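Journal club prep — side note

Before the paper discussion, L.F. wants everyone to see what a predicted structure for a comparable chain looks like in token form. Sequence:
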Amino acid sequence: MTSIGVLALQGDVREHQRALQEAGADAPAVRRPAELAAIDGLVIPGGESTTIDKLITTFELREPLRQRIADGMPVYGSCAGMILLAASILDGRPDQEPLAAIDMTVRRNAFGRQVDSFEADLAVTGVGGDPMRAVFIRAPWVESVGAGVEVLASVTGPDGATHPVAVRQGHALATSFHPEVTGDHRVHALFARMVRAASNDAA
């Protein structure tokens, strides 16, 4: 069975584990380099991006994680996870070290504070079927993307402009919304397909 770990340092870990299991994958918690080395793909959940960033260093995961991503391990980040996968973070902590898995610039808490959380129906490229109900909680948005990044979904922000909220580049996937909380596991199924394809290519 495909093993897709969930970075279990902070955030909504169990919800992602359940969604991945529904998508037919094993979903172990990942906190140590040895656990990271044993998986086929990784989900970085929502939570507080600056806290997760600090804990990645505390648990000595930063360099192993960067190396596995560089070696082609598929990775998916939702909300805070999207921020951590970016090449550049606007309004982040000065010492924050993004993983640069996707050539994008993100803006933290772009849609506002907790009270500004909202839901929207999104057509997401690659998941098929009806529009997804997307839940945005203190969500980032993508400010800009490089030439190699595919925008899968966008929404209109409070500034009146359209901003990407789901993107993919190679083996990396990111959403600013939380698909793990709705019971609609199509994003996780998409990521599971990405992981299986990468495993087949490696074989």
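L.F.'s comment for the group: The two ends are 15 Å apart (CA to CA). Keep this in mind when we get to the figures.
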